[in-house]
């Protein structure tokens, strides 16, 4: 769940139409038209990427008059489907996937089940990737992949692709570095324990 | 009792409140004193900075260390990216790291004849932070206008590694050669666990969001830093890597400058010195039974310093963060992820946030890092409405103030903290150099416990930490 209190505002006098803001906007809320950046206030999630990357400092973040609350309630979709998706992605439905918004895997899974088929739509509907904008792209891509969705990359630098997980590290690589302090197999055991705990947790 | 050490000054930054709002420092509060690390641990290393020689000591050490480095691969006219990270600028006011970056540029020009040298300074989660440091330390002028901050959301490039494709920031690698300039302050032991510490920026401040998310979501708490090793070991990075230069840090300052063409060799040396120099003070902090914590330093909440140790590590000081047999520190993002909706851990054996911390007085610390975990787990008083407003505007700290209360001024906050916590022990994370500012009662406890901690680290813990990292303890005797 994300309460959006801020909104990007472009100073059209300063804007040079370079499109960097458009290329880094997680929910695709910015479009450059006639060499001027335009922010869709309904889509802006107040993350500030545009403000932080604009080479001309043409974007300021202003307080919204009325905050927007974005949330996909996991209770509105089949629990079985959420658990199936999370299990495939090797996540516990309750585990936090976005540290800024405290969004849990189950909410992202619910958004996907309801039809969000790109990281951009998921950001728009849940608010993930609109805090630090850095740490939560992989769980989003893993959950989309678990749903059999291969999203098309937008035109920009929003994201490039899913990267390896610990379960995919080749055995020879693990062996090669086993004496260097990397505890791959032990961490696999830990992450599996977290992912497979849903039944016990519910019973508690 | 000693007078408190002068704390690090507030810094003008878009990530913190205007320094005019920092009206009183915690070290000025009645009953505060200081303890020097040399007095706690007589084997604390001597430092070249701070010292009577001032910044020239760093300059001389850097030039000397670079003498042994081969730069013959860099030809006149070649382009060179000197890669830096925000972290170095948070140490001792930032001047030593800025000086090292200046010397590296000067020596490359002198030795190779090339003038096409660019500074590429990576960041954590505050994307303009190094832009601020570049201006503050005159690095844009020194690099003749070729200095810029780079961020993990900037254009990326794929890097093929032995575990698959990871992604770097394009601007880091858009030169014929790269030079890695960093420091050995252990800082985020909770994340990297002092495994491949020297390599970490390749998976972090030089990396795109995909790679950083891999680190914090895909590889586990003790495998995370392998992302850095995988990228650095790639053919692509190896084809561009020229050499590395590091400030060798200890909790009391800069011990030396180290440089090498072999990053792994330097990494091994710094793994040892990191465990050795920081192990004792971190273990001693674990002996504190109860305290009020003061945050009073120009950095986000987890990164404020006391005795060279960051608050995030004090929040986990109830366990041995260097011990790799322990999977989860009390604070790391994996740990945070594993708390369920009811506020309880999803699995057993998740260590709690250091129960010795009875209350936090947030006198001065920045936003720009997701910190709600801390205010959620420890009662927190934020001094001043301006700081509360700053955190509420910050997209990374939407929930921080949901769990904190606001005091109008420091005096009110301290009065409340003493009354509610029931302890008179106070530790202040204010960047005091050479020691730590504490209350008299805590100074006494640290002095009492230090000798036994010192012995335990020397005889038991340090040998174990080194063995866990593939280093024979006998080699350092």
Q: Can you describe this structure in just a few lines?
A:
The complex is a heterodimer of chains A (204) and B (477). With 204 residues, chain A is an alpha+beta fold. Chain A has nine helices and six strands, in the order βαββαβαββαααααα.
What would you say this structure looks like, in words?
The complex is a heterodimer of chains A (204) and B (477). Chain A is of the alpha+beta class. Chain A has nine helices and six strands. Among the domains of chain A are: 2-69, Alpha-Beta Plaits (2-Layer Sandwich); 164-204, no CATH class. In chain A, a hairpin with a 2-residue loop joins strand 2 (30-33) and strand 3. In chain A, helix 3 (79-88) packs across helix 4 (105-113) and helix 4 (105-113) packs across helix 6. The model of chain A has no long low-confidence stretch (mean pLDDT 95). In chain B, helix 2 packs parallel to helix 3 and helix 10 (263-285) packs antiparallel against helix 16 (440-468). Chain B has helices at 37-40, 56-67, 95-112, 129-136, 139-142, 189-192, 209-218, 226-232, 235-240, 263-285, 311-314, 333-337, 372-377, 385-393, 410-421, 440-468, and strands spanning 32-36, 80-85, 117-122, 147-149, 156-161, 164-169, 177-183, 241-250, 253-260, 291-300, 305-306, 309-310, 357-366, 380-383, 404-407, 426-429, 435-439. In chain B, helix 3 links the parallel strand 2 (80-85) and strand 3 (117-122). In chain B, the strands form four sheets. A seven-stranded mixed beta sheet of chain B has the order 1-17-16-10-13-14-15. Chain B has 477 residues and is an alpha/beta fold. The chains are: A alpha+beta (204), B alpha/beta (477).
């Amino acid at each position: 769940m994300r309460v959006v209190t801020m909104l990007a505002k472009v100073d059209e006098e300063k804007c040079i139409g370079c499109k960097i803001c458009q290329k880094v906007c997680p929910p695709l809320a910015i479009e450059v038209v006639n060499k001027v950046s335009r922010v869709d206030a309904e889509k802006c999630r107040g993350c500030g990427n545009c403000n932080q990357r604009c080479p001309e400092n043409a974007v300021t973040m202003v307080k919204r008059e009325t905050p927007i609350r974005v949330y996909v309630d996991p209770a509105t979709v089949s629990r079985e489907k959420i658990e199936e998706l999370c299990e495939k992605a090797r996540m516990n439905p309750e585990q936090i996937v976005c540290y800024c918004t405290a969004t849990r895997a189950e909410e992202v899974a619910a958004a996907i089940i309801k039809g969000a088929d790109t990281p951009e739509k998921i950001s728009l509907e849940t608010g993930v990737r609109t805090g630090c904008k850095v740490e939560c792209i992989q769980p989003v891509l893993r959950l989309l992949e678990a749903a059999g969705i291969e999203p098309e990359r937008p035109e920009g630098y929003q994201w490039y692709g899913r990267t390896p997980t610990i379960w995919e590290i080749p055995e020879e690589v693990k062996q090669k570095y086993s004496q260097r302090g990397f505890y791959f197999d032990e961490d696999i055991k830990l992450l599996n324990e977290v992912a497979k705990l849903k039944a016990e947790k519910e019973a508690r | 009792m000693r007078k408190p050490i002068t704390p690090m000054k507030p810094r003008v930054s878009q990530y913190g409140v205007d320094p005019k709002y920092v009206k009183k420092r915690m070290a000025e509060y009645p009953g505060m004193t200081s303890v020097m690390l040399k007095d706690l641990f007589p084997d604390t290393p001597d430092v070249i900075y701070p010292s009577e020689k001032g910044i020239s000591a760093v300059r001389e050490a850097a030039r000397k260390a670079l003498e042994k480095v081969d730069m013959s691969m860099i030809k006149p006219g070649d382009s060179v990216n000197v890669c830096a990270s925000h972290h170095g600028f948070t140490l001792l006011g930032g001047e030593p790291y800025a000086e090292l970056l200046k010397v590296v540029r000067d020596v490359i020009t002198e030795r190779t004849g090339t003038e096409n040298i660019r500074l590429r300074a990576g960041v954590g989660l505050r994307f303009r932070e190094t832009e601020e440091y570049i201006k503050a330390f005159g690095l844009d002028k020194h690099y003749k206008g070729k200095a810029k901050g780079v961020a993990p959301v900037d254009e990326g490039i794929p890097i093929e590694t032995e575990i698959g494709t990871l992604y770097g920031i394009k601007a880091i690698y858009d030169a014929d050669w790269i030079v890695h300039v960093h420091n050995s302050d252990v800082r985020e032991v909770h994340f990297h666990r002092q495994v491949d510490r020297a390599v970490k920026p390749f998976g972090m401040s030089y990396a795109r969001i995909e790679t950083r998310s891999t680190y914090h979501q895909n590889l586990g708490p003790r495998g995370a830093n392998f992302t850095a090793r995988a990228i650095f070991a790639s053919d692509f990075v190896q084809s561009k890597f020229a050499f590395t230069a590091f400030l060798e840090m200890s909790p009391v300052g800069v011990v030396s400058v180290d440089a090498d063409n072999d990053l792994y060799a330097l990494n091994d040396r710094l793994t040892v010195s990191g465990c050795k120099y920081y192990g004792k003070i971190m273990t001693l902090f674990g002996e504190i039974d109860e305290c009020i914590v003061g945050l009073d330093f120009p950095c986000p909440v987890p990164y404020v310093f006391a005795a060279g140790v960051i608050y995030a590590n004090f929040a986990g000081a109830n366990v041995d963060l260097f011990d790799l047999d322990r999977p989860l520190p009390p604070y790391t993002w994996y740990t945070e992820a594993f708390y369920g909706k009811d506020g309880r851990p999803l699995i057993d054996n998740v260590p709690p946030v250091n129960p010795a911390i009875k209350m936090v007085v947030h006198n001065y610390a920045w936003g720009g890092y997701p910190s709600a975990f801390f205010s959620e787990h420890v009662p927190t008083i934020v001094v001043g409405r301006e700081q509360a407003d700053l955190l509420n505007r910050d997209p990374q700290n939407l929930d921080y103030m949901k769990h904190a209360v606001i005091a109008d001024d420091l005096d009110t906050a301290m009065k409340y903290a003493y009354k509610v916590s029931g302890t008179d022990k106070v530790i202040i994370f204010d960047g005091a150099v050479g020691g730590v500012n504490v209350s008299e009662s805590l100074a006494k406890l640290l002095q009492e416990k230090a000798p036994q901690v010192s012995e335990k680290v020397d005889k038991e813990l340090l040998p174990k930490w080194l063995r866990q990292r593939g280093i024979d303890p006998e080699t350092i005797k």
